[in-house]
Amino acid sequence: MGWIKEKVIELTKKYDTRDPFELASCLNVFVFEWDFHEEINGVYKYDKRNKYIYINSNLNINNKLFTCAHELGHVVLHPRANTPFMRKNTLLSVDKIEKEANRFAVELLVPDEALYDYQDSNLSIHEICEQYSVPKELACIKNFNN
Q1: Which of 128, 101, 83 is closest to 20 using CA atoms?
Q2: Could you tell me the domains of the chain?
């Protein structure tokens, strides 16, 4: 099991939720919606021991959920690294911290149990992930443990 998945499991057990907004509140992270340009989904900012997540208010609810989970990944995995913005094209970023934040978001939003629930269906991993607010382009990074 990967270290990022272990962090997600530890966090979700401790706070008994997979909701990134609830987890942010539990971790004393301030979450705001902001009217960003359409290419900017979200921002994580660390300032004087305070942590802030800004989410584009123009996103649909599924994209807001994923963006919050992604930015929460930065909070947990890279707490002192400001991430200036998450653009739409960073979903497939080669930047290490963006890849890690994406993996965190996918593991948070799509628990292994969800895949068990759909094992007898005709749904692909891409379709299952979309039902959990994960962009289909990122379904391939789900780390599934049997």
Answers
A1: 101
A2: 3-139 (1.10.10.2910)
